[in-house]
Amino acid sequence: MNPVSMRRELSLKKKGYDLIAGVDEVGIGPLAGPVVAAAVILKAGARIRGLDDSKKLSPKVREELYSIIINSSVSIGVGIIDNSVIDRINILQASFRAIRSAIASLSIQPQQILVDGIRKIPGISMPQTSIKGGDGICSSIAAASIIAKVMRDRLMDNYDRVYPRYEFINHKGYGTEEHMKLLKKYGPTPIHRISYEPVFKSLLSKGYLFF
Predict the structure, then answer these.
(1) pLDDT digits over 138-194, tens only?
(2) Where are the chain's structural domains?
(3) 82-115 burial, b for 16+ CB within 10 Å, e for fewer?
């Protein structure tokens, strides 16, 4: 039985919160590409079968749910922070910035934020609740994780066309064995995160420059 439900949203609605946004981000670990966050306010009574943590779903299922989530939402916001900012302010601060950007880009501002994880998001004025493992148990957070994942994967597929020899379409920038071999062979691209040790080492040991 899928544990993802609207229980938390319904509990908050009983307390008078009608606009509740689930937020989540993807792209903390990759060696290349942006971190992407999404904020999703689901429609009252929305029941989306198959919602789950995006990491547990196949690309095909994520794409199918993406369209359903779009049609089942009051508003969706997305925040994208590129690798140059990640290198400058670190990935934690970049992920916070992406989430704030996603919330700010909603067409209507929420009364309550549900956040995946254990940290509160700094710089958010509305009330927020952190839910450990929220992307696997809370509908609006699961929806946000799917939106963010699909958006980021599409961006990395586009980068694959710009840098075809790195095969971003396969690994999406994560540090797979395949990606590590290509990084060692060719050096980093302009979308690699220089502050991440494997990328920095490839520069240090080979003396590669951006191209």
Answers:
(1) 999 999 999 999 999 999 999 999 999 999 999 999 999 999 999 989 989 999 999
(2) 7-160, 165-206
(3) ebebbbeeebeebbbbbbbbbbebbeeebbbbbb
